[in-house]
Amino acid sequence: MRQELSSREQWSSKLGFVLAAVGSAVGLGNLWGFAYRSSEGGGAAFVILYLLVVLVVCLPIFVAEFSLGRNTSSSAFLAPIKAAGSNWAPLGWLFIIAPVAIASYYAVIMGWTLDIFVQSLFVGLPDDIDQASKIFSSINNGNRDFIGQIFSLLLGGFIVSGGINKGIEKINKICMPILFILLVFLVIWAAFLDKSGEGYSNYLFNFDIKQLTNITTIRYAFSQAFFSLSLGIGIMVTYASYLNKKSKLPSQAIQIASLDTVVGLMAGLITFPIIFTFGLGETIKSSTLATLFITIPTGLGQYGLAGRIIAIAFFGLAYIAAITSLISLLEIPVSTLIDKFGLKRNFSAYATVFIIFLIGIPSVISTEFLANVDSLANILLIAGGFLVSFLIGWVVPKTLDIELTNSGSSPLVKTYLKFSLKYVTPIIVAAGLIVSIYDLLIKWTNSI
Ligand code: PHE
To answer: 399 CB under 6 A from ligand 1?
Structure first.
């Protein structure tokens, strides 16, 4: 045990850990997921529900996942068993199945992003929406899709095989500052578009009280919160297992969640002005997954060279955000192969990537399949969130106690988190889970 602990890699600094966790959280979910979920009718009600879920439910779960990881110093698959015995093995399995499922389609969407980036760089942008749709369907068709998916997986495997410090930490330290600079630049640029005001008001002030109780809006709010924060999936457990004993878990949870939420909101401040300025509102309503990949190039195509530069910045930004998320998804199975079977990191990384490639093939072939895996995976995340809060709140509350004491947390923070993980979080997440499963079942039965 001791040997295992001392040979385990650690983040070289607090900043390294926070950046890696933010790198995992900030991804296509913020840019693509947020835009499409908030535009599908929920409007401001969706944003409000999402913020509430983050604040009331996700923050305590963050601390719960951190505590579980740091306390057990194990990868996500083993951590629940180490903490509470073999009855909790199913949670370990969930922590393997969910990231593999998400990575399998995430890499496909990364492929689309890369393709549009390369097109903007070397070819140019579409003239109108028809041309953009044609370009998207050619990207989203067979062989071209595979190239982007395979490239992204290999790049992810390569970074993860470098390890915690030389791979994951290093790439996040480079990418995250670039990402923030690009983001601020794009928000400012979008603010000067003709109809930016209309875009903002449709995004933030389009409030319909009935939407607060709409079950699809509720499912979207839960899905978006868990997906965007990379919660309920074991990533924060795994990343915290490389943490030294002193770092302050609650304040790091707040930092990571706020940065991620700010990026999500900022992404809306970019996409909505574009959509309204270029009159793409109808397209965005009828499409879901493809929104980002059709409307944005079309909008920017009307701006000549300047538009092209913005497209390069936007899709470059999205790709950078995505790669730092993909590596976190890969790290969960990879760290499990290392911890449980003593395999070499290099081998584990490429074996994981290969299996994910195989599982991702149907998502390459069918966008509908991809969308269904996405909906299902989001349910797994909410279920994971429920189980983690139940585990830490009810089964092994001592783990939380020890870790909060190590973090030097004040009695008030301790009481709040203990109370919340026992009586508030599990109940709200359970309700969210039931509503989400119900909504998804209705959606699926309607579509048969
Ligand atoms: N949070 C990432 C995003 O918003 C996606 C992700 C989900 C990454 C779950 C890891 C785990 O794109």
So the answer is: no
Nearest residue to 428 via CA among 378, 377, 386, 376? 386
Round to whole Å and give the CA distance between 434 and 429: 9
Indicate if the pLDDT at residue 2 is higher than 70: no
Average pLDDT over residues 54-82: 96
Q: What per-residue confidence (pLDDT) applies to 285?
A: 56
Residue 246, classed as helix, strand or coil, is coil
Best of 228, 317, 374 for a ligand 1 pocket test (most atoms within 8 Å of beta carbon): 228
Give the pLDDT score at 106.
96
Given a cut of 80, whether residue 283 has pLDDT beyond it is: no
In the predicted model, what is the mean pLDDT of the chain? 90
Cα angle 241, 245, 246; round to 5: 130
- Say how many CA atoms lie within 13 Å of 285 toward its Cβ: 10
Q: Decide whether any atom of ligand 1 lies within 6 Å of the 228 Cβ.
A: yes
Return the pLDDT at 365.
Answer: 92
Is the minimum distance from the CB of 27 to ligand 1 under 6 angstroms? yes
Torsion of the alpha carbons at 383, 388, 391 and 396, rounded to the nearest 10: 180
Helix axes 345-365, 304-341, angle to 10 degrees: 130
Cα angle: 26, vertex 432, 100; to 5 degrees: 45
Helices (H) and strands (E) in the chain, counts: 23, 0
Neighbours of 366 (CB within 10 A): 12
Q: Would you state the pLDDT for residue 218?
A: 94
Contact assessment for residue 329 and residue 95, using Cβ atoms and an 8 Å cutoff: no
pLDDT tens digit sequence for 300-332 = 898 899 999 989 998 998 999 999 999 999 999
